[in-house]
Design a protein that fits this description.
alpha/beta, 253 residues, Rossmann fold, OB fold (Dihydrolipoamide Acetyltransferase, E2P), five-stranded parallel β-sheet, 2 domains, 34% helix
Length: 253
């Protein structure tokens, strides 16, 4: 019976190359492909492929984040693809999960397929699930991975917004409004969840409903009763909450 496969990469040429190389392997059946992490997670949960070719560097989240979000009841085997992440390559070796270093040739690709096939034959779900968990822990041990890109809907299509483009963020119930130069986007996440995902060196929460991008702060002025007025480079003015006086003082030095 053919081993089922999902191919995940945000670059079309990279996906096409993997699909082309798979054509000569009748014992592998492609279930589909994904160009972003969120779609990949949904398809892994829906189709339960036995093997996933997973790119590490993607706009919405990295490959490790995909692994950490999938169900471990019936996890797929992963062949990671990366262009340069040497630290990650060592983690793969430790956890016995294969990888392809871009650009890879047919011989290396076939070797990865052979290893995956052997792993699947000898598969023990509990042990394999633990290896995936260990992989994520090894990767996250010495670094905190912060959000780099927002995936938002714009004109009924997914649109990627780099966090550095956001001037400030305002709470809107279970959503937030992302304010950019001349445009704003609604994004489904709570302020508390989002605050933990943003790099603290770049973002400062000044109110329970407002987070500002520090690089766009033009000036600050103390008002009274532990409140500050923030003026951004686009001349937007924001007032801080009293409970955030200490954080703001640290920012101002």
């Amino acid at each position: 019976m053919a081993i089922t496969v999902l191919v995940v990469d945000d670059e079309i040429p990279a996906r096409k190359r993997v699909l082309k190389l798979l054509e000569s392997h009748d014992d592998f059946k492609v279930l589909g492909e994904s160009n972003n992490a969120k779609d990949a997670i949904a398809k892994i949960e829906k189709f339960e492929p036995e093997l996933v070719f997973l790119d590490i560097q993607m706009p919405d989240m990295d490959g490790f984040s995909v692994v950490s979000r999938i169900s471990l009841d019936n996890p797929p085997h992963i062949i990671f693809a990366t262009a340069y992440d040497q630290y990650a390559l060592k983690a793969f070796d430790v956890c016995a999960v294969d990888y392809l270093l871009k650009p890879f040739d047919k011989e290396r690709f076939d070797q990865a397929l052979y290893r995956a096939k052997e792993h699947i034959k000898l598969r023990q779900t509990e042990k394999f699930s633990q290896k995936l968990l260990d992989l994520v822990k090894v990767y996250q041990k010495d670094q905190t991975v912060f959000l780099e890109v927002f995936t938002v809907k714009y004109k009924n299509r997914d649109h990627y917004v780099g966090v550095e483009e956001v001037l400030y963020i305002e709470a809107a119930g279970n959503y937030v409004t992302l304010y950019l130069e001349g445009i704003k986007h609604l994004h489904r996440i709570t302020m508390s969840e989002l605050e933990d995902q943003l790099p603290p060196k770049d973002f400062l929460r000044i109110h329970r409903s407002v987070i500002v991008n520090k690089r766009y702060v033009k000036s600050t002025r103390y008002l009274s009763k532990n409140e500050y007025a923030f003026q951004l480079k686009n001349d937007i003015k924001l007032i801080s909450g009293r409970a955030y006086r200490e954080k703001i003082d640290d920012f101002l030095g």
